[in-house]
Design goal:
- Helix 4 packs antiparallel against helix 5, helix 5 packs antiparallel against helix 6 and helix 7 runs antiparallel to helix 8.
- The strands form 4 sheets. Strands 1-3-2 form a 3-stranded mixed sheet.
- It is built from 17 helices and 10 strands.
- 58% of the residues lie in helices and 8% in strands.
- Strand 4 and strand 5 form a beta hairpin.
- It has 430 residues and is mainly alpha-helical.
Length: 430
C-alpha cells in the first residue's frame, strides 16, 4: 500500500490497498460527480483533483460505491440536461457550470453554483418565452420548467430529505390516483392543510412525495376499525390476566423469597384462577392448561432467573441460586401439593353445588346442601377412621357445623345455610 496516497472518498479503512488514479478513472468519477451534485445525492461533497497527482487515490470498494447509481437517476439527469440545453443561449452556461461544479474546491460553493445555474437557465428561458410568447412550444417548456422548480414533497414540503443516512428520492403520481385516498383520510383527521393542498390541484396534476412521508401520513390518520369483543377475545384476556397472576407469584415467592414450588402446583393455581374467570363469564369451564405449556411460558418470561429441578419424576421450579433441595424438602413440597390439590378440589365442589329451591312455607330449610365430598373429608379430619366415633351424634354435629362454616366462607357470605340464615334466628326468637 502506498503511504503517500490517501483515499479521496474519506473512508475510515486503513487496511485496504489504495490505488492511484488514472486519467480514465478520474474522468469517469467526474462524470458521476456532475450527476450527484445536480441531483443533490450522496457523495456530492467529494472534490476530485484537476489531474492525476501523487497524493490522491482510492480504495476499489469506495470507487465502486461512488460509481454505482440506479439507471433512473442517470436518465433524470439526462432529461434535465436536455431540457436545459434546449435553449441555444444556455448551452455554454450549462457546460461551463457543470465543469465548475465538479472542479470546485469548495463543496458549498459547488452546490450553490448548481442551484444558481438552474435558476439562471430558468430566468433566461422565461425571458425568451416572454419575448416569443406566441410560440406554443416555448410556453409548454416554460410550464414544465416551473413545475420542475416546484418538485417538493406533497406532505413535508421539502425537496431533499435524508432517511436512514440516505437521500430519499421523490416519487411521482397523478393527483387523481391519490386524491380520493388522501382526501378521505384528511377529512377523517380534520387536516385542513392537506385539504387545502388537494383543493389547489387539478386531476391531471402530478404529485411528488417521499415514500416514508406518505406512509407516515397514512398511518397517522388511519381510520381504526371497530373490533367486536367476541368470546375468543374474552378468553384470551382471561389467559393474560391469569398468567400475570402466576408471574407475580413466581417473582415474589420464588425469585425474591428464594422458595421452591412444584410445577404441578403452579399449574393447578393457573387452572383455578382461569376457571373462576370462565365460570363468572360463561358459566362453564372447558379449558385445561398443561404444565408443559406453562413451563415453556415461564422459561420465556424469566429465562435464567429460574431453574427446573427434577426429583422423583416431579418438576420443581426453583430460583437460580440460594435454594438447596433434599429428600426432606421434597417430601414437604409433595405434601404441600397434595393438600393444595385437595383444598382446590373441595373448593370447586362447593362452588359448583347447585342451589336448592325452597318454598316460602319452608322458612327453616336450607338453600344449600353440604357436598358429600366435603362432609366425608371433614368426617375423616375431625373423627379419624374410627367407625364408632364417626357414627356418634357429637361427631356428626361438629362435621355439619364446620362444613357450613366452610361453605359460608368460600361463598363470601352469600350462602344461606341453616346455621347462617338470619331468618331462622328471627323465627326462633319470635
Amino acid at each position: 500500500m502506498n503511504s503517500k496516497l490517501s483515499c479521496i472518498f474519506k473512508c475510515e479503512s486503513v487496511s485496504d490497498e489504495i490505488n492511484k488514479f488514472t486519467e480514465d478513472h478520474l474522468k469517469q468519477c467526474r462524470e458521476r460527480l456532475r450527476i450527484r451534485v445536480a441531483l443533490n445525492m450522496k457523495y456530492s461533497d467529494i472534490v476530485f483533483p484537476e489531474c492525476v497527482d501523487a497524493s490522491h487515490g482510492y480504495h476499489s470498494k469506495c470507487r465502486k460505491n461512488f460509481l454505482a447509481m440506479p439507471k433512473k437517476y442517470i436518465e433524470k439527469y439526462e432529461e434535465l440536461a436536455s431540457e436545459v440545453n434546449a435553449s441555444p443561449t444556455s448551452v455554454a452556461v450549462t457546460s461551463t457550470s457543470f465543469a465548475n461544479i465538479s472542479d470546485s474546491g469548495n463543496i458549498e460553493e459547488g452546490a450553490e453554483s448548481a442551484q444558481a445555474m438552474f435558476l439562471s437557465v430558468d430566468r433566461e428561458e422565461e425571458e425568451i418565452s416572454g419575448q416569443q410568447g406566441r410560440s406554443v412550444h416555448e410556453d409548454a417548456n416554460s410550464a414544465r420548467n416551473q413545475r420542475r422548480a416546484e418538485r417538493i414533497c406533497f406532505f413535508c414540503d421539502k425537496h431533499r430529505k435524508v432517511y436512514n443516512h440516505r437521500i430519499l428520492p421523490l416519487h411521482s403520481s397523478v393527483a387523481g390516483k391519490l386524491r380520493n385516498n388522501i382526501c378521505r383520510i384528511a377529512s377523517a383527521g380534520t387536516d385542513r392543510e392537506i385539504e387545502g393542498k388537494l383543493d389547489a390541484l387539478n386531476v391531471n396534476d402530478t404529485i411528488y412525495y417521499h415514500l416514508p412521508c406518505r406512509q407516515m401520513y397514512l398511518r397517522k390518520y388511519v381510520i381504526t376499525r371497530v373490533t367486536h369483543n367476541t368470546d375468543w377475545h374474552k378468553k384470551q384476556k382471561f389467559h393474560e390476566l391469569t398468567y400475570s397472576d402466576i408471574c407475580g407469584f413466581v417473582e415474589t415467592n420464588i425469585i425474591n423469597n428464594k422458595e421452591c414450588h412444584l410445577l404441578q402446583f403452579l399449574t393447578d393455581c393457573y387452572n383455578e384462577i382461569l376457571e373462576n374467570f370462565y365460570v363468572e363469564e360463561f358459566q362453564y369451564f372447558d379449558a385445561k392448561y398443561t404444565s408443559q405449556h406453562l413451563l415453556e411460558k415461564l422459561n420465556k418470561t424469566f429465562g435464567d432467573k429460574i431453574q427446573v429441578i427434577l426429583i422423583h419424576q416431579k418438576k420443581l421450579i426453583a430460583p437460580r441460586d440460594g435454594c438447596v433441595i433434599d429428600d426432606e424438602t421434597f417430601s414437604r413440597f409433595h405434601d404441600f401439593e397434595l393438600l393444595s390439590r385437595a383444598a382446590l378440589m373441595l373448593r370447586k365442589k362447593i362452588l359448583l353445588t347447585p342451589k336448592k329451591p325452597r318454598q316460602i312455607s319452608d322458612i327453616t330449610g336450607r338453600e344449600w346442601e353440604i357436598p358429600k365430598d366435603l362432609a366425608d373429608f371433614m368426617q375423616h379430619l375431625v373423627c379419624g377412621i374410627d367407625s364408632r366415633t364417626q357414627k356418634s351424634s357429637d361427631c356428626a354435629g361438629r362435621v355439619d357445623s364446620i362444613s357450613q362454616d366452610i361453605m359460608y366462607a368460600v361463598h363470601h357470605g352469600r350462602t344461606k345455610t341453616s346455621k347462617h340464615d338470619f331468618r331462622n334466628d328471627a323465627q326462633k326468637h319470635s
